[in-house]
Amino acid sequence: MCEVLSAICTSPIGRLTISYCLQGLHSISQISTINDRSFLPHANQSIEYELPCDIDDPILDSCREWLDDYFHAGVHPIKTPKLCPTVIMKGNSFQENVWYTLLKRVPFGHVITYGELAKLAGNTGAARAVGTAMRRNPFQLIVPCHRVICSNGKKGNYAGGERNSVKVWLLKHEQIENCK
Ligand SMILES: [Zn+2]
Question: Could you tell me which residue ranges the Methylated-DNA-[protein]-cysteine S-methyltransferase DNA binding domain spans (predicted)?
Answer without folding.
Answer: 94-175
